Amino acid sequence: MAILLVDDHPMLRLGLARVLEQGLEGLAIVQAGSGEEALLKVAEQVPGLVIMDYELPGISGLETTRRLRQRLPQLRVLFFSEHRELGLVRQALDAGACGFLSKAAEPGVVLEAVRRVLSGHAYIEQSLATELALQVPGSHARLQGLTQREIEIFRMLAKGSSSRVIAQQLCLSSKTVSNYLTLLKSKLQVGSQAEMVHLAIETGLLKRVA
Fold it and tell me: 2 forms bridges with which residues in the sheet?
C-alpha cells in the first residue's frame, strides 16, 4: 500500500516516513512538497492514504484535498498540521478529510490515527475532538451563512494574503476574489481588515498571537 506524505518540509517528511515504516508493514512511502506536486503524484498512482499538511506553498492543503476528493471521492485524507484552531479542523473535515492530527502528536498516536483511517474510520486527535464536542452551539453564528469557499477566502484575507495571492492559490480571477471580499464584508458586517482579523480569531479560524 502507498501512503502519500504532502508537506513542504523535507526533514519532517523524512521523520514521518520513518515512523510509518517502523510501525506499519508493507508500505510504500511517496512524498510531495506542494499541493501541485501531490495532484501529479496521485494522478500517477492512487495511494491508500494521503497525509496532508494545511499550509503549503502554492495551493493550500485544503484546496488540494478538495480537488483530490472531487477527482477521487473514495480517497482517504488525514490532515497533519501544526495548526490546531477548531475552525481549521472543521474546514478540513468539510473538505472531505477523514481525520485531523497535530504535528505535536507522539509517534504512537500518529500510527493509531493512520491505522484507524486506513481501516475506514475517522480520527480526530483526542484533545481537539474534546474541544469540538464542548464547543457552545451557535458560538460561530456569524459564519453560518458563509459557503466553504467564502470561509476559506475569509481566513486567507484575515491572515493578510493579497487578492492576487488568493486568486493564484485558488485558481480564481482577481475580479472574482474582489467580489468575494465585498460579499464577505457585507455578510460579516465588517468594514476593515482589523475587524476581519478580530472576527477570525473570535471564531477560531485564526490563532491569537500572544
Answer: 28
pTM, 2 dp = 0.69
Q: Are residues 20 and 108 in the same domain?
A: yes
116 and 73 belong to one structural domain: yes
Q: How far is CA 45 from CA 1, 30, 49, 91, in A?
A: 11, 9, 11, 26
Q: What cell does 135 get?
A: 464547543
Return per-residue pLDDT of the chain as tens, 210 residues: 899 999 999 999 999 999 999 999 888 999 999 999 999 999 999 999 999 998 898 888 999 999 999 999 999 999 999 887 777 888 888 888 999 998 989 999 999 999 989 988 888 887 777 666 545 444 466 676 777 688 778 878 887 888 888 888 888 888 898 898 888 888 888 887 778 888 887 776 666 544
Query: If you search the block for the grid coordinates 482517504, which residue do you land on?
Result: 76
Q: State the residue range of the domain holding 29.
A: 2-134
What is the bridge-based pairing of β-strands 99-102 and 123-124? parallel
What are the start-end ranges of the H helices in 95-207?
107-118, 126-134, 148-158, 163-170, 174-188, 193-202
Backbone angles phi, psi at 29, to 5 degrees: -95, 125
Strand partners, 4: 30, 50
Which of 75, 109, 134 is where one domain is finished?
134
